[in-house]
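Illustration 12: ZMYM2-like/QRICH1 C-terminal domain-containing protein.
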Amino acid sequence: MARVRAKAKQKKAFDNRVGKQELKVYDVVRIKKAVFSKKGEENGNAIRVNGRHWLNAVSPNTTKATLYALNVWRYWCMTKGLKEYMDLTKVPAVKLNELLEDFYITVKKTDGSDFLATSLHAIRRGLDRILKNAGAGFSITSSIFNSSSQKLKEKLRVLNKAGMAGARSRNIIYFSLSDQEEMWRIGCLGDESPVALLSTIVKFNSQYLNMRTLQEHADLMYGDIELLKDSQNRTFFARTDSVKRENRLNASNVCYGQIYHDHSKGVRRCPYCLLCKYMYAHRPPSQMDAKSPFYLTARKEVTGMDSVWYEEQRMGLRSLRGVVPKLAKKVMLDLCDSYTFVSFTQACRKFGPVNDYQHM
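Figure caption equivalent — predicted structure in token form:
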């Protein structure tokens, strides 16, 4: 009896994780009896999907990964209004390639966030296993699927650039909202000092401009963040990477995140207003050239009469790397060195590339 309850609890946890309670998009029945794989080896992890086809997984983990990939595919089909394609084993190769082109680019978790690159790879492998075990006669990794594979590569490049490769995902520790509230309360964040303002800009760039790695922050130039107007004539800051892209052929106008006015917690916490202060009010005029480094070294001492808070030199890599761990230490958190730029991103909205804007 205890064993039955344990299995039921495990199944419920799995269903919650893949989103079955939000939208019932699959009907998977585990086969209790042993079956045989194509090699003739006994395999007790077979799966029957909707009572029609079999999946012979080599291990419980592979079985779980295959189920997850199946659920992700069906959930995507449901949200796209493509219920007739939920059984991918019945979709012709040409049509499936067309669907996968859109799938790789637009698929999201049930909470609307992007999958890690490693997760997207695993989903693709799971879908391919389903086709293989169903005897579909083709693989989504074959040359027939070149165009969809190219879309996958494009999405993986975007994810890797955003620090969402996934290789170190298990080591990520996120700041809670209460942790961040404490940072504001004690003055670690805000505009009360050069260091506090700089730390705040690092937080906002990580949170809103999709900057997840040390290299992305270190390579950022002053001209890579621009003041733009959207289609409703609202001004906003955007990371366009225009300095990095100026030497590229066919560089398109896109932005990788936006910062708008937000006075919901007061003007002193508005991301837009604080970025204005850093970029225009407290920066040396000589460092406002497009190719100037974005992050500058904070002056150790400033008076109330000083408008310039930063030196005319790039912030060092060691100092930049230490910004987030120092914030964690200020609010008395354990494992301070484990906090990174990604630690600010758990609850933020992730923006995709946007091209509907005009320069100021």
